[in-house]
Amino acid sequence: MAKSPGGWRSNLILLAITLLLCLVGGEAALRLIGFKPAPTSSDLFVPDDTLGWVGRANHQAILEESGIKFNVQMNRWGFRDDQPPDFSQVESKQRIMFLGDSFIMGSGLAQSARVSDRIEQTDPGRVAYNFGLLGYSTDQELLVLKKYGPEIRPQVVLLFVCANDLIYNDSDFGHRKPKPHFRLQADGTLALG
After folding, report:
1. Residue 93 sits in a domain of what CATH number?
2. pTM of the model
3. Cα–Cα distance between 6 and 13 in angstroms, integer?
4. Residue 88 is part of which domain span?
């Protein structure tokens, strides 16, 4: 019995159709049971007119840094921290503002293991505000201070600087995202660019 010359093509087309139907059926089944994939870092950051980018407000995601996965919960301002209390609740406490990049944000750490949380835990009379964010440099951190400082009125501001800040401070981009930066003027002042 001779095989038809188009038989293997028909089988290949049938296989492709079967795989497509399986994928569509699997997707429909997952949606039907309400499965949602874990949010990732691509879901976490959004553009910000002042700062370049911030975290998505009130959003949770799983980040991965150097093979370490960790949960991130952003507050209403888009930073990895608890929801900020009303000023009247913390007016009598020492308010400390932490500015920095992924080190202050706590990449690879549980939120409770970050330096800001550890310092806050040492004294109930302190409240720490963590404004660390992945990829920030000191120009953005200055803008964070100007934007949120008047609201929290910190008595202490701690700025954590990394060597890569020297590179990103003079750049329109940080971590492949557009960002603001300052330019030194002839008269010695800084102009936001």
Report:
1. 3.40.50
2. 0.75
3. 11
4. 41-192
